[in-house]
Each structure stands twice: as structure tokens, then as C-alpha cells.
Amino acid sequence: MSESNSSGYLQALFGLSGKTAVVIGGTGVLGGAIADALAQAGAHVVIVGRNAENGDSRVKQIEALKGSAEFFAADSTSRSDLEAVVAHLKAKGQVVDILVNGAGINAATPFLEISDEEWERIFRVNLLSVKVACQVFGQAMLDENVAGSIINIASMSAITPLSRVFTYSASKAAVLNLTQNLAREWAEQGIRVNALSPGFFPAEQNRKVLTPERVASIMNHTPTNRFGDPEELAGAVLLMAAGKAGSFITGTNIAVDGGFSCMTI
């Protein structure tokens, strides 16, 4: 196969030209890397978040690489804010083809000290935001008869809970359950719903829990013996987002974890 034919084949499998992707939480490190990957595959990316400085910076990075992106200020838990994103795109003649739910927060609080406020705050960002976004953008996909892809960012802690992050683990486990339920619900309508569970990638939400002792424990249980780079999420994201290569993938969880999930003792 010639180089040009190979490039065309890969474009047909993984290319996202003409697609619109909404990345909620795209102002963060991992969400921003996901936005980069989608843009470089040809999608127009709408970065949704509350930090305008980070959002505008990410847009400039994408545009510098000849990608297409814009920032939309919104609260991931606000239905009206997310409905405004749909209305904004509709006014431009665009529909949502890809949704990435990447907003998330964490805390390392001993179980008996977890307040109701902390529990509700983490569940609100990590789970309610996913529920609301799937309702708002899922409805938009159904209304426009879009064969869409929804990617919910879960966690390895959703599968086997990590110590000291009780609320985070519980909320992410619920994200996996919701992902499977929606995949079953919308499969016949052509909407695929999958989850991505990153292993250990240094980011804003986990820096506070990465003590030297915890880092040593993580490395002992990660065969690759290192943290992941945000760009290493790109392959899994593009597979799940791609209308051709990922067309038969729904209701699954892809772990990008350096082998963490296969380690025992």
C-alpha cells in the first residue's frame, strides 16, 4: 500500500473531518489533550469549562497546529449552560457528533471525616455533570438523527477502589454503570457510549493526593514504572470517537493505565 493510500485508509478509519466535538472539562490537562487529539483528527472542538484563560490558551494551541476550536464558558453541572452550547452550535448550523465528559474533582479524606457537603460536591461534578450532559447532548443527537459518540471519563478507581479517595471512587464507579446503561439504551439509535479510564496521569485533580509514599506505591503497581503522558490518551479517544473504526464499540471501558490493572503482587 502506497503512503498516500495508507494515509487515506487511516483517514477513513479515524478521521473526524466535518464533525463537531464538545469536550467538557477541556480546560484541564487531560481534557485539553483530548481536545487536541480530536482537533488534529479534523473535528471542530468546542472546549467547555469555567476557566476562560485556560480555555482560550488551549484554543490558541489548537489553532497554531491548524486545528479548529473555540471556548464556551459553562458550568458542567448547569443544564441551562449546556443547553446554551447546543443552541450556539445550532445557530451556526452545527450538530454535536462527539461528546467527552471530562469534568472531575477529587479529595483524599478519611472515610469517617467525609462531610455530606464534600460527598455531594464531588458527586455533583463527577456524576451529575455526566448525567446532565448526556441528557442535553444525547437529546440533541437524537433530534438530529446523529450517529454520535459519547465518551465518559471514568477512572481505574472505578473498577477497584483506591485507598483514601472514597467519594471519588464511588462517583466514578457510578459513571461506568451509567455508561453501560446508556450504551444499551441508545445503541439502536446509532449513539455509542463508552468510558475511558486513565491510569495515573499527573493532573490538577490528583496532585493533592500524590504524596511521595503514594507515588512509590503507584510505581510498584504500574509495570511501565512511570506516569502517563496526556498525549497517550489520544489513541483510545480517537478509536472511540471515530465513526468507522469505533462503530462496533459501545458500552465498554478502555483502560489506559500502563498495565496498572493487570498487576497484583
UniProtKB/TrEMBL annotation:
Database matches in Gene3D superfamilies = NAD(P)-binding Rossmann-like Domain
Species of provenance: Gimesia alba
Protein name per its UniProtKB record? Putative oxidoreductase UxuB
Q: What is its EC number?
A: 1.-.-.-
Family (UniProt): Belongs to the short-chain dehydrogenases/reductases (SDR) family.
A GO molecular function term, named singly, is:
oxidoreductase activity, acting on the CH-OH group of donors, NAD or NADP as acceptor
Q: Where is the Ketoreductase domain?
A: 19-199
One biological process term from GO is: carbohydrate metabolic process
UniProt keyword terms in alphabetical order: NADP, Oxidoreductase
PANTHER family to which the protein is assigned, alphabetical? 7-ALPHA-HYDROXYSTEROID DEHYDROGENASE, 7ALPHA-HYDROXYSTEROID DEHYDROGENASE
Q: SUPFAM superfamilies per the record?
A: NAD(P)-binding Rossmann-fold domains (SSF51735)
